[in-house]
Write a structure and sequence with these properties.
With 531 residues, the chain is α+β, with helices and mostly antiparallel strands. Among the domains are: 119 residues, Dipeptide-binding Protein, Domain 1 (Dipeptide-binding Protein, domain 1, Alpha-Beta Complex), CATH 3.90.76.10; 219 residues, Dipeptide-binding Protein, domain 3 (Roll), CATH 3.10.105. The strands form three sheets. Strands 1, 8, 9, 10, 11, 12, 13, 14, 15, 16 and 17 form an eleven-stranded mixed β-sheet that branches. Helix 9 packs parallel to helix 10, helix 11 runs antiparallel to helix 13 and helix 18 packs antiparallel against helix 19. The longest helix is centred in the C-terminal third of the chain and has 17 residues. The protein is globular, with a radius of gyration of 23 Å. The protein starts with a helix and ends in a 23-residue tail after the last strand. The N terminus is likely disordered.
Length: 531
Protein backbone atom coordinates (compact mmCIF):
# COMPACT_ATOMS: atom_id res chain seq x y z
CA UNK A 1 0.00 0.00 0.00
CA UNK A 2 2.83 2.39 0.87
CA UNK A 3 4.62 1.64 -2.39
CA UNK A 4 1.43 2.27 -4.32
CA UNK A 5 1.01 5.61 -2.55
CA UNK A 6 4.58 6.68 -3.38
CA UNK A 7 3.98 5.94 -7.06
CA UNK A 8 0.78 7.98 -6.92
CA UNK A 9 2.56 10.93 -5.32
CA UNK A 10 5.31 10.83 -7.91
CA UNK A 11 3.05 10.56 -10.94
CA UNK A 12 0.74 13.44 -10.03
CA UNK A 13 3.40 15.95 -8.97
CA UNK A 14 3.14 17.89 -12.20
CA UNK A 15 -0.64 17.49 -12.43
CA UNK A 16 -1.13 19.08 -9.02
CA UNK A 17 -0.29 22.46 -10.49
CA UNK A 18 -3.17 22.27 -12.91
CA UNK A 19 -5.53 20.68 -10.39
CA UNK A 20 -4.42 21.79 -6.92
CA UNK A 21 -7.69 20.71 -5.36
CA UNK A 22 -7.04 17.06 -6.23
CA UNK A 23 -7.61 15.05 -3.05
CA UNK A 24 -4.96 12.57 -1.89
CA UNK A 25 -4.72 10.39 1.18
CA UNK A 26 -2.66 11.71 4.07
CA UNK A 27 1.08 11.44 3.51
CA UNK A 28 2.60 8.16 4.76
CA UNK A 29 3.92 8.04 8.31
CA UNK A 30 7.46 7.29 7.14
CA UNK A 31 7.64 9.89 4.37
CA UNK A 32 8.03 13.66 4.45
CA UNK A 33 6.45 15.65 1.63
CA UNK A 34 7.69 19.22 1.19
CA UNK A 35 6.06 21.66 -1.21
CA UNK A 36 8.54 24.16 -2.60
CA UNK A 37 9.41 26.27 -5.61
CA UNK A 38 12.36 24.50 -7.25
CA UNK A 39 12.53 26.73 -10.31
CA UNK A 40 15.69 28.44 -9.05
CA UNK A 41 17.59 25.16 -8.62
CA UNK A 42 20.44 24.99 -11.11
CA UNK A 43 22.13 21.98 -9.58
CA UNK A 44 23.17 20.43 -6.29
CA UNK A 45 26.94 20.88 -6.26
CA UNK A 46 27.68 22.22 -2.74
CA UNK A 47 30.50 24.35 -4.13
CA UNK A 48 28.17 26.08 -6.60
CA UNK A 49 24.69 26.49 -5.11
CA UNK A 50 23.60 29.67 -3.38
CA UNK A 51 19.85 29.33 -2.79
CA UNK A 52 17.87 28.41 0.33
CA UNK A 53 16.01 25.53 -1.32
CA UNK A 54 19.18 23.94 -2.71
CA UNK A 55 21.00 24.45 0.58
CA UNK A 56 18.38 22.49 2.52
CA UNK A 57 18.74 19.57 0.11
CA UNK A 58 22.54 19.67 0.24
CA UNK A 59 22.41 19.87 4.06
CA UNK A 60 20.90 16.38 4.06
CA UNK A 61 22.96 14.81 1.27
CA UNK A 62 26.30 15.95 2.69
CA UNK A 63 27.92 16.73 6.03
CA UNK A 64 30.46 19.22 7.31
CA UNK A 65 33.27 19.32 9.85
CA UNK A 66 31.33 21.61 12.20
CA UNK A 67 27.66 21.67 13.21
CA UNK A 68 25.76 24.79 14.28
CA UNK A 69 22.66 23.55 16.13
CA UNK A 70 19.44 25.29 15.07
CA UNK A 71 18.61 26.14 18.68
CA UNK A 72 22.12 27.38 19.60
CA UNK A 73 23.58 28.56 16.36
CA UNK A 74 26.49 30.56 17.74
CA UNK A 75 28.06 27.53 19.47
CA UNK A 76 30.08 25.30 17.07
CA UNK A 77 29.63 21.59 17.76
CA UNK A 78 31.44 18.49 16.44
CA UNK A 79 30.30 17.13 13.09
CA UNK A 80 32.60 15.09 10.87
CA UNK A 81 35.33 16.58 13.04
CA UNK A 82 34.95 14.93 16.43
CA UNK A 83 37.35 17.48 17.96
CA UNK A 84 39.67 20.34 17.06
CA UNK A 85 42.36 22.59 18.49
CA UNK A 86 43.51 26.11 17.67
CA UNK A 87 47.18 27.04 17.89
CA UNK A 88 48.28 29.75 20.36
CA UNK A 89 48.87 32.22 17.51
CA UNK A 90 45.27 31.67 16.29
CA UNK A 91 46.27 30.68 12.74
CA UNK A 92 46.33 26.87 12.74
CA UNK A 93 43.22 24.71 13.21
CA UNK A 94 43.76 20.97 13.62
CA UNK A 95 40.75 18.68 13.14
CA UNK A 96 40.42 15.06 14.20
CA UNK A 97 38.17 13.36 11.64
CA UNK A 98 35.51 10.99 12.94
CA UNK A 99 36.09 7.31 12.15
CA UNK A 100 33.44 4.91 10.87
CA UNK A 101 31.69 7.37 8.55
CA UNK A 102 30.71 6.02 5.13
CA UNK A 103 29.84 7.83 1.93
CA UNK A 104 26.74 6.77 0.02
CA UNK A 105 29.05 4.87 -2.34
CA UNK A 106 30.27 2.74 0.57
CA UNK A 107 33.69 4.38 0.58
CA UNK A 108 35.04 5.34 4.02
CA UNK A 109 35.31 9.08 4.71
CA UNK A 110 38.92 10.05 5.45
CA UNK A 111 41.03 13.14 6.01
CA UNK A 112 41.99 13.02 2.33
CA UNK A 113 38.34 13.58 1.37
CA UNK A 114 38.23 16.63 3.64
CA UNK A 115 41.44 17.99 2.15
CA UNK A 116 40.21 17.45 -1.43
CA UNK A 117 36.76 18.94 -0.77
CA UNK A 118 37.97 22.16 0.85
CA UNK A 119 40.64 22.63 -1.80
CA UNK A 120 38.01 22.04 -4.51
CA UNK A 121 35.79 24.79 -3.13
CA UNK A 122 38.63 27.31 -3.34
CA UNK A 123 39.92 26.14 -6.73
CA UNK A 124 36.53 26.25 -8.44
CA UNK A 125 36.22 29.85 -7.29
CA UNK A 126 32.43 30.04 -7.65
CA UNK A 127 30.24 32.30 -5.50
CA UNK A 128 30.21 30.05 -2.38
CA UNK A 129 34.03 29.96 -2.38
CA UNK A 130 33.85 33.31 -0.58
CA UNK A 131 33.31 31.26 2.58
CA UNK A 132 37.02 30.32 2.48
CA UNK A 133 38.55 32.82 0.07
CA UNK A 134 37.66 35.74 2.32
CA UNK A 135 40.14 34.40 4.89
CA UNK A 136 43.02 34.50 2.41
CA UNK A 137 42.79 31.07 0.77
CA UNK A 138 43.53 31.08 -2.96
CA UNK A 139 44.02 28.53 -5.71
CA UNK A 140 47.75 29.14 -5.38
CA UNK A 141 48.11 28.60 -1.62
CA UNK A 142 45.31 26.21 -0.71
CA UNK A 143 47.35 23.04 -1.21
CA UNK A 144 49.92 24.31 1.25
CA UNK A 145 47.43 25.67 3.79
CA UNK A 146 44.82 22.88 3.84
CA UNK A 147 46.37 19.47 4.21
CA UNK A 148 45.71 15.98 5.57
CA UNK A 149 48.62 15.03 7.77
CA UNK A 150 47.40 11.44 8.22
CA UNK A 151 44.26 9.41 7.60
CA UNK A 152 42.29 11.11 10.37
CA UNK A 153 43.86 14.56 10.79
CA UNK A 154 43.36 17.74 8.76
CA UNK A 155 45.22 20.99 9.30
CA UNK A 156 43.70 24.29 8.14
CA UNK A 157 46.15 27.17 8.36
CA UNK A 158 44.99 30.74 7.77
CA UNK A 159 47.41 33.26 6.23
CA UNK A 160 46.37 35.84 8.85
CA UNK A 161 44.88 35.81 12.32
CA UNK A 162 41.08 36.10 12.30
CA UNK A 163 38.51 35.76 15.03
CA UNK A 164 38.50 31.95 15.40
CA UNK A 165 34.71 31.66 15.39
CA UNK A 166 34.62 33.07 11.86
CA UNK A 167 36.70 30.14 10.62
CA UNK A 168 34.60 27.57 12.48
CA UNK A 169 31.36 29.14 11.26
CA UNK A 170 32.66 28.95 7.68
CA UNK A 171 33.43 25.26 8.08
CA UNK A 172 29.79 24.70 9.08
CA UNK A 173 28.46 26.24 5.85
CA UNK A 174 26.91 24.09 3.12
CA UNK A 175 29.72 25.22 0.80
CA UNK A 176 32.28 23.35 2.91
CA UNK A 177 30.42 20.03 2.64
CA UNK A 178 32.71 17.01 2.37
CA UNK A 179 32.60 15.09 -0.91
CA UNK A 180 33.61 11.54 -1.84
CA UNK A 181 36.87 12.23 -3.68
CA UNK A 182 37.47 8.59 -4.63
CA UNK A 183 33.99 8.23 -6.11
CA UNK A 184 34.34 11.49 -8.06
CA UNK A 185 37.79 10.66 -9.42
CA UNK A 186 36.39 9.22 -12.66
CA UNK A 187 33.60 11.83 -12.93
CA UNK A 188 35.97 14.65 -13.93
CA UNK A 189 35.21 16.37 -17.24
CA UNK A 190 37.78 18.84 -18.48
CA UNK A 191 39.12 19.51 -15.01
CA UNK A 192 35.72 20.30 -13.44
CA UNK A 193 36.33 17.92 -10.50
CA UNK A 194 32.92 16.34 -11.01
CA UNK A 195 30.98 19.60 -11.24
CA UNK A 196 28.83 18.49 -14.18
CA UNK A 197 28.07 15.16 -12.54
CA UNK A 198 27.03 16.78 -9.25
CA UNK A 199 24.37 18.93 -10.85
CA UNK A 200 21.90 16.06 -10.58
CA UNK A 201 23.68 13.52 -8.38
CA UNK A 202 25.35 13.39 -4.98
CA UNK A 203 28.62 12.18 -3.52
CA UNK A 204 27.94 12.74 0.15
CA UNK A 205 27.75 10.98 3.50
CA UNK A 206 24.60 12.67 4.81
CA UNK A 207 21.45 11.01 6.18
CA UNK A 208 19.82 11.03 2.73
CA UNK A 209 20.92 10.09 -0.76
CA UNK A 210 19.50 11.56 -3.96
CA UNK A 211 17.31 9.11 -5.84
CA UNK A 212 15.35 11.12 -8.43
CA UNK A 213 15.31 14.65 -9.82
CA UNK A 214 12.78 15.59 -12.45
CA UNK A 215 13.38 19.28 -13.16
CA UNK A 216 10.53 21.54 -12.03
CA UNK A 217 8.52 18.52 -10.97
CA UNK A 218 9.86 16.27 -8.24
CA UNK A 219 12.96 15.46 -6.18
CA UNK A 220 13.15 12.26 -4.14
CA UNK A 221 15.75 11.50 -1.47
CA UNK A 222 15.98 8.14 0.29
CA UNK A 223 17.24 7.52 3.82
CA UNK A 224 20.84 6.28 3.97
CA UNK A 225 20.73 3.03 5.92
CA UNK A 226 24.42 3.16 6.84
CA UNK A 227 24.32 6.71 8.16
CA UNK A 228 26.71 6.93 11.10
CA UNK A 229 24.12 8.52 13.41
CA UNK A 230 21.52 5.87 12.59
CA UNK A 231 18.98 5.41 9.81
CA UNK A 232 16.46 8.32 9.72
CA UNK A 233 12.83 7.65 10.63
CA UNK A 234 11.59 9.25 7.42
CA UNK A 235 12.64 6.64 4.87
CA UNK A 236 11.88 9.01 2.00
CA UNK A 237 11.59 12.75 1.45
CA UNK A 238 9.67 14.07 -1.55
CA UNK A 239 10.15 17.66 -2.66
CA UNK A 240 7.31 18.65 -4.96
CA UNK A 241 7.61 21.63 -7.26
CA UNK A 242 4.56 23.76 -6.48
CA UNK A 243 5.45 27.40 -7.17
CA UNK A 244 2.04 28.93 -6.52
CA UNK A 245 1.23 29.92 -2.94
CA UNK A 246 -2.45 29.05 -3.33
CA UNK A 247 -1.63 25.54 -4.54
CA UNK A 248 0.79 24.98 -1.65
CA UNK A 249 -1.85 26.16 0.78
CA UNK A 250 -4.44 23.72 -0.57
CA UNK A 251 -1.98 20.83 -0.49
CA UNK A 252 -0.89 21.32 3.12
CA UNK A 253 -4.40 22.09 4.31
CA UNK A 254 -5.63 18.83 2.76
CA UNK A 255 -2.75 16.83 4.23
CA UNK A 256 -1.17 16.12 0.84
CA UNK A 257 1.98 17.98 1.92
CA UNK A 258 3.64 18.10 5.32
CA UNK A 259 5.58 21.32 4.86
CA UNK A 260 4.92 24.36 2.64
CA UNK A 261 7.80 26.74 2.04
CA UNK A 262 6.74 29.57 -0.27
CA UNK A 263 3.41 30.92 0.90
CA UNK A 264 2.10 34.45 0.75
CA UNK A 265 1.41 36.26 4.00
CA UNK A 266 -2.32 35.99 3.23
CA UNK A 267 -2.13 32.21 2.88
CA UNK A 268 0.09 31.89 5.94
CA UNK A 269 -2.40 33.88 7.95
CA UNK A 270 -5.29 31.71 6.82
CA UNK A 271 -3.43 28.52 7.66
CA UNK A 272 -2.38 29.86 11.04
CA UNK A 273 -5.98 30.45 12.04
CA UNK A 274 -7.08 27.08 10.63
CA UNK A 275 -5.41 25.12 13.42
CA UNK A 276 -3.89 22.32 11.29
CA UNK A 277 -0.44 23.82 10.92
CA UNK A 278 2.12 25.84 12.81
CA UNK A 279 3.94 28.73 11.15
CA UNK A 280 7.68 28.73 11.69
CA UNK A 281 9.43 32.09 11.36
CA UNK A 282 13.16 31.43 11.33
CA UNK A 283 15.33 34.53 11.69
CA UNK A 284 17.95 34.88 8.98
CA UNK A 285 21.21 36.76 8.61
CA UNK A 286 20.33 38.61 5.44
CA UNK A 287 18.13 41.32 4.04
CA UNK A 288 15.61 42.22 1.42
CA UNK A 289 17.61 44.71 -0.57
CA UNK A 290 17.47 47.05 -3.55
CA UNK A 291 20.64 47.22 -5.67
CA UNK A 292 21.34 50.35 -7.76
CA UNK A 293 24.06 49.82 -10.36
CA UNK A 294 26.75 52.43 -9.81
CA UNK A 295 27.94 52.18 -13.39
CA UNK A 296 24.76 54.03 -14.27
CA UNK A 297 25.25 57.80 -14.50
CA UNK A 298 21.92 58.57 -12.83
CA UNK A 299 21.84 55.88 -10.16
CA UNK A 300 25.38 56.66 -9.04
CA UNK A 301 24.35 60.08 -7.70
CA UNK A 302 24.05 60.02 -3.87
CA UNK A 303 20.82 62.02 -3.83
CA UNK A 304 19.20 59.63 -6.30
CA UNK A 305 20.24 56.72 -4.10
CA UNK A 306 18.82 58.56 -1.09
CA UNK A 307 15.56 59.22 -2.95
CA UNK A 308 14.95 55.49 -3.31
CA UNK A 309 15.03 55.24 0.49
CA UNK A 310 11.84 57.34 0.55
CA UNK A 311 10.06 55.27 -2.12
CA UNK A 312 9.77 52.12 0.01
CA UNK A 313 6.57 51.67 2.00
CA UNK A 314 8.23 50.12 5.04
CA UNK A 315 5.23 50.29 7.36
CA UNK A 316 2.66 49.27 4.76
CA UNK A 317 4.69 46.25 3.70
CA UNK A 318 5.43 45.27 7.30
CA UNK A 319 1.74 44.77 8.00
CA UNK A 320 0.94 42.93 4.78
CA UNK A 321 3.24 40.97 2.45
CA UNK A 322 6.20 41.09 4.87
CA UNK A 323 4.24 40.12 7.98
CA UNK A 324 5.81 36.67 8.07
CA UNK A 325 8.89 37.28 5.94
CA UNK A 326 10.79 40.17 7.44
CA UNK A 327 11.40 42.65 10.22
CA UNK A 328 11.74 46.30 9.24
CA UNK A 329 15.41 47.24 9.35
CA UNK A 330 17.33 49.93 7.49
CA UNK A 331 20.71 49.43 9.17
CA UNK A 332 23.19 46.78 8.07
CA UNK A 333 24.04 44.65 11.14
CA UNK A 334 21.28 42.03 11.61
CA UNK A 335 19.27 42.33 14.80
CA UNK A 336 20.49 40.15 17.63
CA UNK A 337 24.14 40.29 16.57
CA UNK A 338 26.94 42.41 18.11
CA UNK A 339 26.69 46.06 17.07
CA UNK A 340 23.03 45.97 16.02
CA UNK A 341 21.16 49.23 16.59
CA UNK A 342 17.46 49.99 16.67
CA UNK A 343 17.33 52.81 14.16
CA UNK A 344 14.95 53.17 11.19
CA UNK A 345 14.92 56.84 10.15
CA UNK A 346 13.25 56.42 6.75
CA UNK A 347 9.59 56.17 5.80
CA UNK A 348 7.57 56.40 2.59
CA UNK A 349 7.66 60.07 1.55
CA UNK A 350 6.98 60.76 -2.12
CA UNK A 351 7.48 64.51 -1.79
CA UNK A 352 10.86 64.07 -0.12
CA UNK A 353 11.90 61.71 -2.91
CA UNK A 354 10.83 64.28 -5.52
CA UNK A 355 12.84 66.95 -3.74
CA UNK A 356 15.98 64.81 -3.76
CA UNK A 357 15.53 63.91 -7.41
CA UNK A 358 15.16 67.60 -8.29
CA UNK A 359 18.32 68.45 -6.33
CA UNK A 360 20.12 65.68 -8.21
CA UNK A 361 19.08 67.23 -11.53
CA UNK A 362 16.09 65.05 -12.42
CA UNK A 363 12.93 67.07 -11.67
CA UNK A 364 11.01 65.07 -14.27
CA UNK A 365 12.31 61.71 -13.10
CA UNK A 366 13.78 59.03 -15.38
CA UNK A 367 13.18 55.49 -16.63
CA UNK A 368 15.06 52.32 -15.65
CA UNK A 369 14.72 48.57 -16.13
CA UNK A 370 14.00 46.85 -12.83
CA UNK A 371 14.74 43.13 -12.40
CA UNK A 372 13.00 41.21 -9.59
CA UNK A 373 12.50 37.56 -8.76
CA UNK A 374 8.87 36.54 -9.46
CA UNK A 375 8.32 34.75 -6.13
CA UNK A 376 6.58 35.74 -2.94
CA UNK A 377 7.22 38.12 -1.25
CA UNK A 378 9.99 39.61 -3.43
CA UNK A 379 7.73 40.39 -6.36
CA UNK A 380 5.05 42.03 -4.23
CA UNK A 381 7.73 44.25 -2.69
CA UNK A 382 8.96 45.15 -6.18
CA UNK A 383 5.45 46.01 -7.36
CA UNK A 384 4.98 48.30 -4.36
CA UNK A 385 8.23 50.13 -5.16
CA UNK A 386 7.27 50.43 -8.83
CA UNK A 387 3.95 52.06 -7.91
CA UNK A 388 5.55 54.50 -5.46
CA UNK A 389 8.34 55.40 -7.88
CA UNK A 390 5.80 56.26 -10.57
CA UNK A 391 4.27 58.85 -8.22
CA UNK A 392 7.69 60.51 -8.01
CA UNK A 393 8.14 60.49 -11.80
CA UNK A 394 10.44 57.45 -11.92
CA UNK A 395 9.27 54.83 -14.40
CA UNK A 396 10.46 51.36 -13.50
CA UNK A 397 10.08 48.70 -16.19
CA UNK A 398 9.55 45.76 -13.84
CA UNK A 399 10.73 42.48 -15.34
CA UNK A 400 10.30 39.23 -13.47
CA UNK A 401 12.43 36.17 -14.11
CA UNK A 402 15.72 34.60 -13.15
CA UNK A 403 18.07 37.57 -13.44
CA UNK A 404 20.58 36.65 -10.74
CA UNK A 405 23.20 35.91 -13.39
CA UNK A 406 22.89 39.44 -14.75
CA UNK A 407 23.22 40.84 -11.24
CA UNK A 408 26.35 38.79 -10.60
CA UNK A 409 27.85 40.08 -13.84
CA UNK A 410 26.85 43.74 -13.29
CA UNK A 411 24.52 43.61 -16.29
CA UNK A 412 21.54 45.38 -14.78
CA UNK A 413 20.22 48.80 -13.80
CA UNK A 414 18.06 48.08 -10.76
CA UNK A 415 17.72 44.70 -9.08
CA UNK A 416 16.05 43.51 -5.90
CA UNK A 417 16.09 40.22 -4.04
CA UNK A 418 16.93 38.89 -0.61
CA UNK A 419 20.26 37.71 0.70
CA UNK A 420 20.89 34.91 3.15
CA UNK A 421 24.32 35.11 4.63
CA UNK A 422 25.27 31.96 6.44
CA UNK A 423 27.60 32.98 9.27
CA UNK A 424 25.93 33.93 12.57
CA UNK A 425 28.22 36.94 12.85
CA UNK A 426 27.99 40.54 11.54
CA UNK A 427 30.99 39.96 9.29
CA UNK A 428 28.92 37.67 7.06
CA UNK A 429 26.66 40.50 5.92
CA UNK A 430 29.29 43.25 6.03
CA UNK A 431 31.76 41.32 3.90
CA UNK A 432 29.18 41.21 1.10
CA UNK A 433 27.43 44.57 1.51
CA UNK A 434 30.24 46.80 2.75
CA UNK A 435 33.53 45.63 1.21
CA UNK A 436 34.76 45.84 -2.37
CA UNK A 437 38.55 45.79 -2.49
CA UNK A 438 38.71 46.00 -6.28
CA UNK A 439 35.84 47.62 -8.16
CA UNK A 440 37.05 46.70 -11.65
CA UNK A 441 35.11 44.32 -13.86
CA UNK A 442 38.20 42.16 -14.12
CA UNK A 443 38.29 41.55 -10.35
CA UNK A 444 35.14 39.40 -10.59
CA UNK A 445 34.42 39.48 -6.86
CA UNK A 446 31.12 37.81 -7.67
CA UNK A 447 30.47 36.70 -4.10
CA UNK A 448 30.12 40.29 -2.92
CA UNK A 449 26.92 42.27 -3.41
CA UNK A 450 28.89 45.51 -3.25
CA UNK A 451 31.03 44.44 -6.21
CA UNK A 452 27.99 43.23 -8.15
CA UNK A 453 26.52 46.69 -7.66
CA UNK A 454 29.82 48.34 -8.72
CA UNK A 455 29.76 50.36 -5.51
CA UNK A 456 33.11 51.78 -4.47
CA UNK A 457 32.45 51.46 -0.74
CA UNK A 458 33.97 54.28 1.36
CA UNK A 459 37.44 53.20 2.54
CA UNK A 460 36.63 54.08 6.15
CA UNK A 461 33.84 51.53 6.21
CA UNK A 462 35.92 48.82 4.54
CA UNK A 463 38.79 49.34 6.96
CA UNK A 464 36.48 49.01 9.96
CA UNK A 465 34.96 45.80 8.58
CA UNK A 466 38.42 44.27 8.22
CA UNK A 467 39.53 45.43 11.66
CA UNK A 468 36.44 43.95 13.31
CA UNK A 469 37.01 40.56 11.66
CA UNK A 470 40.57 40.45 13.02
CA UNK A 471 39.57 41.65 16.49
CA UNK A 472 39.52 38.89 19.12
CA UNK A 473 38.05 41.07 21.90
CA UNK A 474 34.27 40.71 21.60
CA UNK A 475 33.41 44.05 23.25
CA UNK A 476 35.75 45.91 20.90
CA UNK A 477 34.20 44.09 17.95
CA UNK A 478 30.71 45.17 19.04
CA UNK A 479 31.84 48.81 19.25
CA UNK A 480 33.31 48.64 15.75
CA UNK A 481 30.13 47.12 14.34
CA UNK A 482 28.00 49.86 15.90
CA UNK A 483 30.22 52.48 14.20
CA UNK A 484 29.98 50.63 10.88
CA UNK A 485 26.20 50.59 11.22
CA UNK A 486 26.07 54.38 11.56
CA UNK A 487 28.58 55.00 8.77
CA UNK A 488 26.78 52.69 6.35
CA UNK A 489 23.43 54.37 6.97
CA UNK A 490 24.95 57.83 6.41
CA UNK A 491 26.63 56.85 3.13
CA UNK A 492 23.43 56.61 1.04
CA UNK A 493 24.50 53.09 0.05
CA UNK A 494 23.93 51.55 -3.35
CA UNK A 495 22.49 48.54 -1.51
CA UNK A 496 19.33 49.72 0.23
CA UNK A 497 18.14 47.41 3.01
CA UNK A 498 14.51 47.44 4.05
CA UNK A 499 13.75 44.24 6.00
CA UNK A 500 15.84 41.68 7.81
CA UNK A 501 14.67 38.39 6.39
CA UNK A 502 12.80 35.71 8.22
CA UNK A 503 12.08 32.40 6.53
CA UNK A 504 8.46 31.37 6.99
CA UNK A 505 7.23 27.81 6.57
CA UNK A 506 3.96 26.09 7.34
CA UNK A 507 4.39 22.73 9.08
CA UNK A 508 1.52 20.37 9.84
CA UNK A 509 0.96 19.69 13.54
CA UNK A 510 1.72 15.96 13.30
CA UNK A 511 5.22 16.65 11.96
CA UNK A 512 7.78 16.82 14.77
CA UNK A 513 11.44 17.77 14.57
CA UNK A 514 11.36 19.79 11.35
CA UNK A 515 13.18 22.88 12.62
CA UNK A 516 14.04 25.82 10.38
CA UNK A 517 17.73 26.73 10.44
CA UNK A 518 19.03 30.29 10.21
CA UNK A 519 21.88 29.26 7.90
CA UNK A 520 19.54 27.15 5.71
CA UNK A 521 20.75 23.76 7.01
CA UNK A 522 17.35 22.38 8.02
CA UNK A 523 17.66 18.66 8.73
CA UNK A 524 15.26 15.89 7.77
CA UNK A 525 16.78 13.12 9.90
CA UNK A 526 15.35 14.74 13.05
CA UNK A 527 11.79 14.46 11.71
CA UNK A 528 9.14 12.02 12.87
CA UNK A 529 5.35 11.82 12.74
CA UNK A 530 4.76 10.21 16.08
CA UNK A 531 6.06 6.84 14.90
Amino acid sequence: MLRRHVILLSSIAALSLAAPSLVLAATPKDQLVVAMDTSSLRGLDPNEINQLEAAEIVANLYERLIVLPADNISKPQPGLAESWTVSPDGKTFTFKIRSGVKFHSGNPLTAKDVEWSLRRLVKLGLAPSTDLRQWGFTADNVEKLIRATDGSTVVVETPEVWNSNLILYSLASFSTSILDSKFLADKDKGGDMGREFLQTADAGSGPYTLRTWRVNELIIADAFKDYWQGEPKMRRVLLRHIPESSAQRLQIDAGDADVATRLSSTDLGALETGGKVKIQKTPGFGFYYLALNQKDEILSKPKVREAFRYLIDYDGLAGTVMKYYGIKQQTIVPGGLPGAIDKNPYKLDIEKAKQLLTEAGYPNGFSKVYYATPVTPEYEVAQSLQANAAKAGVKLDLQGGDHIGKFRNRQFEIFSARSGDRLPDPHAVLQSYATNANNTDEAKLVGLNAWRTAWDVPKEIQQMVTAAAHETDQSKRADLYAKINEAYLASSPALVTSFQRTDAKAVRNEVKGYIGHSTWLTRWDTVNKGN
